[in-house]
């Protein structure tokens, strides 16, 4: 049985100003390498060289490149949440709820378009099982929130159906956004086609 790495571990957290600056230089260097050359080029020696610090300084905070990737992942997800959370508000009507879902999808796509590190991480996530597991947790939480919202609008929708529908919506929206932002710009027409399908599905769920 293969033991899964614990990529959440840190050797220590930066406290003093100088140590925080070093920590940030490590993260910035890793981000630059990931964006420019992809996951294959990312390793602790490359990070140390790019940050112009010793390899010992890198290992003072991160035991390996996967721990650095975990830090970048957490930061990117925080930026993504900050981008879409303003769209996640309570609504009265089904029409308003569908518009809310459209707005959240659009904001998510724009966040990926604007954030090169986020796009690079999205490409790398599925090559690192531990990050893929974290991404699945993010999807599951998004699906749970969506299912809860649908049931508030349509109490007749049972919990199992709502959860299945929410999971399908989140997975397809996620894949569509990845595809529509793959080149660093947003293919709005392509995303609009997917959102139209989502809106028809949501209306059927909530009104049908």
How is the secondary structure organized here?
Elements: H1 17-37, H2 44-51, H3 55-59, H4 65-84, H5 94-114, H6 116-125, H7 129-153, H8 159-180, H9 188-207
Helix pairs in contact: 1-2, 1-4, 1-6, 4-5, 5-8, 5-9, 7-8, 8-9
Describe the structure.
The protein has nine helices and no strands. Helix 4 (65-84) packs across helix 5 (94-114) and helix 5 (94-114) runs parallel beside helix 8 (159-180). The mean pLDDT is 89. It starts with 16 loop residues before the first helix and ends with a helix. With 208 residues, the chain is an all-alpha fold. The chain folds into two domains: 17-67, Homeodomain-like (Arc Repressor Mutant, subunit A, Orthogonal Bundle); 72-207, Orthogonal Bundle (Tetracycline Repressor, domain 2), CATH 1.10.357. The chain is elongated and about 60 Å long.
Q: Mean pLDDT across all residues, rounded?
A: 89
Structure annotation, total helices: 9
CATH class of the largest domain: Mainly Alpha
According to CATH, the fold-level topology of the largest domain is: Tetracycline Repressor, domain 2
Assess the beta-strand content as a share of residues: under 5%
CATH architecture tag of the largest domain: Orthogonal Bundle
Class by SSE composition: mainly alpha
Radius of gyration from CA coordinates: 20 Å
Q: Kindly give the count of domains.
A: 2
C-alpha termini separation: 48 Å
Are there runs of 5+ residues with pLDDT below 50, and where? none
Q: What is the overall shape?
A: elongated
Proportion in helices: over 70%
């Amino acid at each position: 049985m293969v033991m899964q790495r614990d990529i959440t571990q840190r050797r220590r957290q930066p406290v003093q100003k100088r140590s925080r600056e070093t920590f940030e230089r490590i993260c910035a260097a890793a981000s630059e390498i990931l964006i420019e050359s992809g996951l294959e080029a990312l390793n602790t020696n490359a990070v140390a060289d790019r940050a112009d610090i010793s390899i010992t300084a890198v290992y003072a905070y991160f035991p390996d490149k996967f721990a650095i990737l975990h830090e970048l992942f957490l930061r990117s997800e925080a930026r993504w949440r900050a981008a879409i959370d303003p769209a996640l508000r309570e609504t009265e009507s089904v029409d308003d709820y569908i518009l809310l879902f459209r707005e959240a999808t659009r904001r998510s796509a724009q966040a990926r378009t604007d954030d090169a590190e986020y796009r690079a991480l999205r490409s790398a996530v599925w090559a690192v099982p531990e990050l893929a597991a974290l991404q699945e947790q993010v999807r599951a939480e998004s699906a749970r929130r969506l299912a809860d919202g649908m049931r508030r609008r349509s109490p007749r929708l049972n919990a199992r159906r709502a959860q299945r529908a929410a999971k399908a919506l989140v997975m397809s929206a996620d894949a569509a956004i990845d595809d529509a932002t793959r080149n660093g710009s947003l293919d709005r027409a392509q995303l609009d086609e997917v959102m139209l399908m989502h809106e028809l599905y949501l209306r059927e769920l909530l009104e049908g």
